[in-house]
Design a protein that fits this description.
The complex is a heterodimer of chains A (about 475) and B (about 350). About 5% of the residues of chain A have low confidence. In chain A, about 70% of the residues lie in helices and about 5% in strands. Chain A is globular. Chain A is mainly alpha-helical and about 475 residues long. Chain A has a two-stranded antiparallel ribbon. A two-stranded antiparallel ribbon of chain A has the order 3-4. Chain B is mostly helical. Chain B has one domain: Formate dehydrogenase/DMSO reductase domain (Formate dehydrogenase/DMSO reductase fold). Helices cover about 75% and strands about 0% of the residues of chain B. Chain B contains 13 helices and 2 strands. Chain B has a two-stranded antiparallel ribbon. The C terminus of chain B is likely disordered. Classes of the chains: A mainly alpha (about 475), B mainly alpha (about 350). At the A-B interface, helix 2, helix 3 and helix 14 of A face helix 2, helix 3, helix 4, helix 5 and helix 13 of B.
């Protein structure tokens, strides 16, 4: 019971946290590009766009940061046995994340936010790039930690059977990390550009500030088109890596109970799940699963039945099959929506090429609604990764069932779960209402403030702005 | 020196840094509604910590994550033992963090008042609760042979822990007042100065009480040099803060007072990291809770590279925003000021 509650809590809080993280990473990068454009060409439009999207970024950063705190504490609070067991290896990247990334991100965000017109232009521009770098660096450390749970490397077991770090380099060259990290960064760029695209499309539809928002539509598409195309390849390569290190994860994602060679890929199925081994597969594409999972036409995918037998021999009795329903559908939600987003991006590219994009009613309308897709894809992706690791908390080393805090009662987890859900719902409602409000607002002031009109040099002792 | 001792010192430095920095913005968070009567004055108070609070808070996160990396046993026992207290800390951190970013995003007075309360309550709860937790480390908690906490929430509320919490809250409030005195002008500064008088003496009483109580827990009656420093510094801070001049010295004194108080806790704790009230044999020590030497070596190198960089750019940020914060000139000069509170006067333009 306590274990289940702790799992529910981790799933709830981390999925929620990751609704905001990719927006932050993606938008920080895009805002930095907008400000760079302003710095290069000096057009006031770009300054206004920088501030407009900068505000949306900040509204999100607030929730992203505070929900990240919960994650940082939760390991020790709910998963003390896990923390005790893995801290030697797993704690390192977390501490590095704080030292190298959080400090950078938060300090330069303060400098950027309060430094408008107070810092020399070039320095101020550097600040937003530092923020963008900080967000991406932060993702690197946490992904290195997470990838270690998927595919532990760089350690030896000590006399108590505990993993002890012996090669820090291995954590950052872990193939699961390298591909997973690129996958996450691309997902963040897709998310950020789809948010920018939706907001810009809304303004183009409303016929407001058409010149300015045409520029951000183009920027969003220029970032989106290559990232979504590359992402589909990176995602499938990550699948190949996982087939190698976590075969049950991918076999479950295809509901592949029996070993197959070659293997077909079912587009849909009726039924399925851990208690239905013979679902009705609809539209099975021959050879496609072999191709996706192994990159070869006749590649073999080991089925769940065989994996289960093999793991029982290796690790003792138990159930080593992840939730097949979650695996099967989260894989498809991610892949199908990704394909649809790619089609949308290509359509946008064609309209951009023809120069008819601002007038294309259907494209703009679809672009606005497409903003929900990255959140569904991101959530599906994490469900696939994390649920697919079960029953392990660290693949092959520790089971989730053995990892929670023995001294914490289920009543305590109930209390914290309810408190988090209530706060998260309130924060989510406030965030969405602020985002909608500031997205629909027009661009800000046309003129730079008076104290800057005189020249580029800031005052000798600038007075901090009343930003908050 | 053993690497685990070095890491104990690094963590103590992180906690000291956290309270020296975030201490004043806790103080400002609580005091903003006292030193600011009108909306603009409250904004001045909040904006005085605007560029800094987020970076200050990272010191706590790094202290937590550093404990995880260097002393996994300590991290695991402490975070699961302090469960409900830490839940409250998290709630406070969340509502306070969001309040800063969102408060100015709407002109609705109820919206602003709501987030203003979140700032105040959050800023009050965090130093209090963290102080209770730190006091408990030294005072001892029921911990069994396998380093698991065996008490409940109420076992955390030890009298010594509560006093430690009050001491850190009192010091944070004084530190906030000296910061506001240093960083604002006119009425806001005057009210901070007035508030510093009672806060100063309360802080002196709390720190002296804390030192005596700590001595009573130990075996010696002679206070250590850091404890003496804490008492001297808090007295100086209390005296300087009420005066018209010496804004900088008063702030320095309150910074030293809070640093010495937090530092003395870790000095008293060493070589233990969490004392077991069940049996001294079950206490967690730097020895029995540290990571392996390779992990500690890696973390030491990473810290040696990044901590000086962090100090450099955080110091630069304080330098960039060194000027006092004041309300911008009224957009319509000559317009009568509203008689306190409310939003009759349009708030200053919201940047970004």
């Amino acid at each position: 019971m306590t274990n289940d509650l702790a799992r529910w809590q981790f799933a709830t809080t981390s999925i929620y946290h990751f609704l905001f993280v990719p927006v932050t990473i993606g938008l920080a990068f895009l805002v930095a590009i907008l400000q760079t454009a302003w710095h290069r060409n000096g057009k006031p439009e770009y300054r206004r766009l920088t501030r407009f999207f900068g505000t949306l970024l900040l509204i999100n950063v607030a929730v992203g940061v505070v929900t990240g705190l919960v994650q940082e504490f939760e390991f020790g609070m709910n998963w003390s046995t896990y923390s005790r067991f893995v801290g030697d290896v797993f704690g390192g990247p977390l501490a590095m994340e704080g030292l190298a990334a959080f400090f950078l991100e938060s300090t330069f965000l303060g400098l950027w936010l309060f430094g408008w017109d107070r810092l020399p232009k070039r320095v101020h521009l550097a600040c937003i790039w530092m923020v963008a770098a900080g967000t991406m660096l932060s993702a690197a450390f946490i992904m290195a930690a997470n990838s270690w749970m998927q595919h532990p490397v760089g350690y030896a077991l000590n006399s108590h059977g505990q993993p002890v770090l012996n090669n820090i380099g291995a954590l950052f060259t872990n193939p699961t990390f390298l591909w997973g990290y690129v996958h996450v960064i691309l997902a963040a760029l897709v998310t950020g550009s789809l948010v920018m695209l939706a907001v810009s499309a809304w303004h183009l539809r409303a016929g407001r500030e058409v010149d300015a928002f045409r520029r951000t539509t183009s920027l969003a598409l220029v970032v989106l088109i290559p990232t979504i195309v590359i992402q589909l390849f990176v995602g499938s390569e990550l699948g190949v890596i996982e087939t190698k290190y976590q075969p049950a994860k991918i076999a479950a994602a295809e509901a592949q109970w029996n070993t197959c060679k070659p293997c077909s890929f079912s587009l849909f199925q009726v039924g399925g799940g851990n208690n239905d081994k013979t679902p009705t597969q609809i539209l099975a594409v021959p050879h496609l699963l072999s191709l996706l999972a192994t990159l070869s036409w006749n590649g073999q995918v080991v089925g769940l039945n065989e994996l289960q037998a093999q793991y029982q021999k290796q690790y003792g009795p138990g159930n080593y099959i992840p939730d097949v329903f979650i695996q099967y559908w989260s894989m498809r939600v991610m892949a199908y929506l990704g394909a649809l987003v790619m089609l949308l991006a290509l359509w946008g590219a064609w309209l951009l090429h023809r120069g008819t994009l601002p007038r294309s009613k259907w494209f703009l309308r679809l672009s606005i609604w497409a903003v929900v897709t990255p959140f569904l894809m991101n959530t599906a992706g994490w469900l696939l990764t994390e649920s697919g690791r079960q029953p392990w908390i660290v693949q092959g080393l520790m089971k989730t069932i053995d990892a929670n805090s023995p001294s914490v009662t289920s009543a305590e987890i109930w209390i914290s779960l309810i408190v988090f859900v209530l706060i998260y719902v309130a924060l989510g409602a406030a965030d969405v209402s602020l985002m909608l409000r500031y997205s629909r607002k027009g661009l800000g002031d046309e003129e730079p403030p008076a104290d800057r009109a005189a020249g580029d040099r800031p005052e000798s002792t600038p007075v901090p702005a009343l930003t908050y | 020196m053993h690497l685990h001792t070095l890491w104990f010192i690094i963590l103590a430095v992180l906690w000291v840094g956290f309270f020296v920095l975030e201490g004043f913005d806790f103080g400002v968070g609580v005091l903003h509604r006292i030193v600011g009567r009108t909306e603009t004055e409250r904004r001045v108070a909040i904006n005085s910590i605007g560029p800094f609070w987020d970076g200050n808070e990272v010191w706590l996160i790094v202290a937590g994550a550093g404990t995880f990396a260097a002393f996994p046993n300590w991290y695991a026992t402490m975070f699961s033992a302090l469960y409900l207290a830490l839940l409250l800390v998290l709630v406070a951190l969340m509502i306070r963090g969001v309040a800063f970013e969102w408060r100015g995003k709407s002109d609705d007075p109820r919206w602003r008042a709501g987030w203003g309360w979140c700032t105040t309550i959050g800023s009050l709860l965090i130093p209090l609760l963290l102080g209770v937790g730190l006091g408990d480390l030294l005072n001892g908690l029921p911990i069994n042979q396998s380093h698991e906490y065996t008490g409940n929430f109420f076992n955390l509320l030890t009298p010594y822990g509560l006093w430690t919490g009050l001491t850190l809250l009192g010091l944070s409030l004084l530190h906030g007042a000296t910061f506001l005195k240093l960083k604002t002008t006119d009425e806001v500064r005057a009210r901070a100065q007035a508030a510093a008088r009672p806060l100063g003496w309360a802080a002196v009483a709390l720190v002296v009480g804390f030192v005596i109580w700590t001595l009573a827990l130990g075996t010696t009656v002679v206070p250590g040099p850091v404890q003496v420093l804490a008492i001297i510094a808090v007295i100086f801070a209390a005296i300087l803060a009420r005066g018209e001049a010496h804004d900088g010295s008063a702030f320095a004194a309150s910074a030293i007072a809070i640093a010495a108080t937090v530092g003395s806790m870790f000095i008293d704790l060493y070589p233990n990291v969490m004392i077991s009230s069940t049996s001294a044999a079950y206490s967690l020590t730097v020895n029995n809770s540290a990571s392996g030497s390779y992990a500690l070596k890696v973390m030491t190198i990473v810290t040696a590279i990044f901590l000086p960089l962090v100090l450099g750019y955080q110091g630069w940020s304080f330098y960039v925003f060194r000027a006092r914060v004041k309300a911008p000139p009224s957009p319509s000069p000559g317009a009568p000021k509203p008689p306190g509170g409310g939003l009759a006067q349009p708030p200053p333009a919201v940047d970004a």
